[in-house]
Amino acid sequence: MSWQIRKAVPSDFRWLVHVDAFAENDHGRRRQIAKAISKGECWVASDADDTAAPVGYGCLDKSFFGEWFVSLVVVSDAHRRRGVGRKIIAHLEQCSAAEKIFTSTNMSNTPMRELLAQLGYQSSGVVENLDPGDPELIFMKILQQ
Ligand SMILES: CC(C)(COP(=O)(O)OP(=O)(O)OC[C@H]1O[C@@H](n2cnc3c(N)ncnc32)[C@H](O)[C@@H]1OP(=O)(O)O)[C@@H](O)C(=O)NCCC(=O)NCCS
Q: Is ligand 1 within 6 A of the CB of residue 75?
């Protein structure tokens, strides 16, 4: 299957809420997605043969100390482990056109940690006390020397 990445448009919102099981029950996440779409900070992944039906999305902004930051990457349960997450992050790296890029995830999130290791991200610190007992790990990748 060939995955295509494009900038999200308002009509993608209902798909992204469907793709992201957490968003279905969390008003804050839905607000975050809507805001990212409206600010042009959200990209969606879809099958190249069905671009109107996203299977994953990623958000990129400069909210992290003014640095480029991948704030969310989500792939639908049904489409995981097919390279979609990898393709989304690689696309966001290109979009940033930056020297370095940051992201973060919970220590407990093995899929995301493995994905970031595979893409060459390095550890860049730990934030305690966000989720009790599950520190937030910061990661960084050098994109251009
Ligand atoms: C993390 C997430 C985005 C990965 O998406 P994905 O499309 O399944 O990832 P990919 O298929 O591109 O995987 C690339 C690599 O990541 C690693 N990986 C992905 N899922 C993994 C898992 N469940 N266990 C171990 N390693 C995993 C592997 O190294 C994999 O390469 P391989 O398949 O060749 O072994 C997906 O699991 C997800 O949406 N999780 C819920 C949301 C979330 O936690 N997002 C991250 C924080 S915002």
A: yes
Query: What are the pLDDT digits (tens) for 66-110?
Result: 999 999 999 999 999 999 999 999 999 999 989 999 999 999 999
Q: Domain range spanning residue 68? A: 3-142
User: What's the whole-model pTM score?
Assistant: 0.97
Atom 24 (ligand 1): residue with closest C-alpha?
A: 111
Residue of the CA atom closest to atom 15 of ligand 1: 115
Torsion angles phi and psi, residue 46, rounded to 5: -150, 165
Q: How much of the chain is in helix, strand and coil states, percent to nearest 5?
A: 35, 35, 30
- Half-sphere exposure of 27 toward its Cβ, with a 13 Å CA cutoff? 0
Return the residue whose CA atom lies nearest to atom 19 of ligand 1: 111
CATH of the domain at 15: 3.40.630.30
116 pocket-lining for ligand 1 (C-beta < 6 Å): no
